[in-house]
Design a protein that fits this description.
By secondary structure, the protein is α+β, with helices and mostly antiparallel strands. The chain is 18% helix and 41% strand. It has a single domain, classed as Nucleoside Triphosphate Pyrophosphohydrolase. The two termini are 17 Å apart.
Length: 157
C-alpha cells in the first residue's frame, strides 16, 4: 500500500487559495461499516459535505493506532472487529477555512468493520462539531459527500 491512486484538487468553496502555502499532512481515513451501513460525519457549524472520519497520524503512532484513536475520539464506537487497509492512497488539496490554511493531505484509507454499535461518550467539543449518521450502502451514491471520500468508499467495496 504505497502507490498513489489519485490526486484530487477540491473545487468551489474548498478550493485551495492561491496566496497560501500548503501544509502537508499524513492522514488516515476510516470507512466505518456495520452490517450494510456506513458511518459518515455530518458537520453542524461548517458548510461541509458529509465526511469520513479522518485525522492526522501522530509522530509516535502507526496507522492502525491512528485509525483506532480517530474512530474512538470522533465517534465513540469501540467494538472494532477489524481494520483493513484499502488500496487507494490519495493526495487531496483543499482549503481549511476554520484553520485559514491550504492542506495537502495524503490519505491512507482503512475499512473499519464494527462488531456492534457499542459506544462510549465522546468529548463535548467533538459532539458540538458533528453528528454520526448511518447510511445504507444503497444510498451512498445520493449523499452529499466529498468526492475523494466517495472514491475511497468505492475502493473499499
Amino acid at each position: 500500500m504505497d502507490k498513489i491512486s489519485f490526486i484530487f484538487d477540491e473545487k468551489g468553496e474548498y478550493a485551495p487559495k492561491k496566496d497560501l502555502e500548503f501544509v502537508k499532512r499524513k492522514n488516515i481515513a476510516a470507512i466505518i461499516k456495520y452490517r450494510n451501513k456506513y458511518l459518515l460525519l455530518d458537520y453542524k457549524n461548517l458548510n461541509y459535505s458529509k465526511s469520513l472520519v479522518t485525522g492526522g497520524i501522530e509522530q509516535d503512532e502507526d496507522m492502525i493506532k491512528a485509525v483506532t484513536r480517530e474512530v474512538i475520539e470522533e465517534t465513540g464506537y469501540i467494538d472494532i472487529k477489524s481494520i483493513e487497509p484499502v488500496d487507494c492512497i490519495n493526495i487531496s488539496r483543499f482549503y481549511v477555512a476554520h484553520k485559514k490554511q491550504n492542506r495537502e493531505a495524503t490519505y491512507y484509507p482503512f475499512l473499519v468493520t464494527l462488531n456492534s454499535k457499542e459506544r462510549i461518550d465522546i468529548k463535548e467539543e467533538e459532539s458540538r462539531e458533528h453528528d454520526c449518521i448511518w447510511i445504507p450502502k444503497k444510498d451512498l451514491e445520493t449523499i452529499d459527500i466529498f468526492e475523494n471520500h466517495k472514491l475511497m468508499i468505492d475502493a473499499s467495496k
